[in-house]
Amino acid sequence: MRYLSPFERNRRRMRRVRLTLIILGAFVLLTLLDFPLLHLFYHKPLQHIENHDWYRLLRIMGFMGTWILVCIVYIAHDRNRHRGLAIFLSALFAGMFAELLKLVFARERPVSCGEIQPGFYHFRGFFSGFQDGSNLGIPSSHAAVAFGGCMMLACFLPRTRFTLFMLALGCGITRMLSGAHFATDVFVGALIGFGCARMMCYFASKHVPDLLPRYRSPV
Question: What percent of the chain has pLDDT over 90?
Fold first, then answer.
């Protein structure tokens, strides 16, 4: 482990504190905007957009089958099979962790039977999702998978980072357009995806030396 001076340690500590405050501030802001954004994005007359090709393209960024295909193509293209596997595992772990947290938080989706649920958030109670896991919203597992896969791929293709980020963000927006998730659901899912990609990048840089020349953190 590289030696860090007290100044460097303090600077890293302050950077982590700032990042934590930014994340918490963004979550609070999105919480305040959840219902305005829900009414802005979700309108029953607009649901025909689900039949548009652009919607489907963005939607499948949160589908694990997409990342299985990307993994296969990347392995076929690249001699280092670890890169393709890392992309797949980042998306997989992000989706699994998001599904687990859904059962823990047990907050329902904003729309039920085509209608926005009345009142405020509908919580069933912590851990109650393990008894009934249907119609749960936070976090969005599609957003988690999309960000986990896209940000891991961005580690190996840094010039495409912005495009990949926009694709993952677009996937999250489609979940809001369909009424399946609040903005905070998507935000937490995106954080999980970023976290899993970061973890996989760190692991790959430490244990797969061939990745080091091309390694770049997505966060």
Answer: 41
